[in-house]
Amino acid sequence: MVFVIIFLCCLESITDPVLRSISAAGVHPSLQGELQGTLTSLSSVTSIIGPYIFSSLFSAFTGPAAPIEFPGAPYAVAGLMCVAGLVVFILYVRPPETGGSETAPTLHAH
Question: Where are the chain's structural domains?
């Protein structure tokens, strides 16, 4: 089981720089530091808050006062968060409308 977790963590370590470079491609060079600082801040905040939220969820659904015993509650909530992120991506991120050159996708408000 430990090797599966190590493998999944390695995948996350590979995807983070790729996603950061895709984000950076859509930002003016003078705003690169601001973008990278914002992404790092978000990563730090979620690294602090995430374990607290998911361990509390696990405790709430496995403790003696649990409304139902559901040890998979943190995973279900994480899955719902992923689906919500996918919906936001589908609704707001569109490829550029200029043809010919490869550029990063841009955000479009509805």
Answer: 56-95+106-110
